[in-house]
Structures are given as structure tokens and as C-alpha cells.
UniProtKB/TrEMBL annotation:
It comes from Lachancea lanzarotensis. This is Cytidine deaminase. The keyword Zinc applies. This enzyme scavenges exogenous and endogenous cytidine and 2'-deoxycytidine for UMP synthesis. Zn(2+) binds at residues 65, 100, 103. SUPFAM superfamilies: Cytidine deaminase-like (SSF53927). The active site is at 67 (proton donor). Its cofactor is Zn(2+). One of its GO terms (cellular component) is cytosol. InterPro entries: APOBEC/CMP_deaminase_Zn-bd, CMP_dCMP_dom, Cyt/Deoxycyt_deaminase, Cyt_deam_tetra, Cytidine_deaminase-like. The keyword Hydrolase applies. Its EC number is 3.5.4.5. GO terms for molecular function: cytidine deaminase activity; identical protein binding; zinc ion binding. It catalyses: 2'-deoxycytidine + H2O + H(+) = 2'-deoxyuridine + NH4(+); cytidine + H2O + H(+) = uridine + NH4(+).
């Protein structure tokens, strides 16, 4: 299901700002090996957007995804638990990309399972919105460590 309707908690203007910033974040990508740029934008309650992009490495395993780059920037700027939406875009023009498994878990650490995740294609003409719960069912999070 594709949608261009703003997720709960976002105005149409917020939604447009978030999508545009996720598309532009790809310009920050360092991806000489895959040549596949990914951008991410995390919007906070104050409507600040933290941008991230994939940063690759000659030692491939040392690379980091756009989502985790944005997460690190948000968290180290004092925004660990006030996210209202996250959007990603990739250089795939026919399809919307979705966060990898590691990134879904990384998002889980800081966000509500209701967090809307906006997945865009390369020019933003296609858009799919799912909650973190839908992308990461039966997940393990910080509260599970307290159930011992
Ligand atoms: Zn990832």
C-alpha cells in the first residue's frame, strides 16, 4: 500500500519537510563502493530533522547505514526519545527502500513501536508508511531486560 497521507502527529507541511530532507540527505552519502546512496531524516517533537547517510568503508563491514548515522546524530544531540517520524530514501527509482534488520533494531532502542517509518523511492514520487511495529514484529527492546 502506498500513501502520501501524513502519518499521525505530522501536518502535511511537516510530512513534506521530512520527505524532502530524507531525499536531500542522500547528498551526504559516502558510497564509492556500492554507488547506492541512502538518506535518512529523523524528525523530533520540536520538528528538528537529524539527517544521516550511508558511510561506506574499504573494509566493508566498517560501513554504517544512513539510519544509524542519523540515530547517532540525534542521540548525541540530546534527542534520544522524542522522535515523531523517520524517513528514508535510496537511489532506487522504481521502488521504495526499507530499513535493514540491524537498523530496525537500532530504531527500536529509541522509538515507540508506533513510530511511523516513511519509505521513499529515489525521487519521492512513491511512498510507503509503516509503523516500527509492522516492520519489526515481536521485537526485543530495553524493557525486556527488566523482565528477569
Ligand atoms: Zn541499515
Amino acid at each position: 500500500m502506498q500513501t502520501n497521507i501524513a502519518p499521525p502527529g505530522l501536518t502535511d507541511s511537516d510530512f513534506q519537510t521530512l520527505k524532502t530532507s530524507a531525499l536531500r540527505a542522500r547528498e551526504l552519502s559516502y558510497s564509492p563502493y556500492s554507488k547506492f546512496r541512502v538518506g535518512c531524516s529523523i524528525m523530533t517533537e520540536s520538528k528538528t530533522c537529524f539527517l544521516g547517510a550511508n558511510v561506506e568503508n574499504a573494509s566493508y563491514g566498517a560501513g554504517i547505514c544512513a539510519e544509524r548515522t542519523a540515530i547517532v546524530k540525534a542521540v548525541t544531540s540530546g534527542h534520544a526519545n522524542d522522535w515523531i517520524c523517520l524517513a528514508i530514501s535510496g537511489d532506487a527509482f522504481d521502488t521504495c527502500i526499507s530499513p535493514c534488520g540491524i537498523c530496525r533494531q537500532a530504531i527500536r532502542e529509541f522509538a515507540s513501536l508506533k513510530l511511523p517509518i516513511v519509505m521513499l523511492n529515489g525521487d519521492g514520487s512513491k511512498c510507503i508508511v509503516r509503523t516500527l511495529q509492522e516492520l519489526l514484529p515481536m521485537s526485543f527492546g530495553p524493557e525486556d531486560l527488566e523482565k528477569q
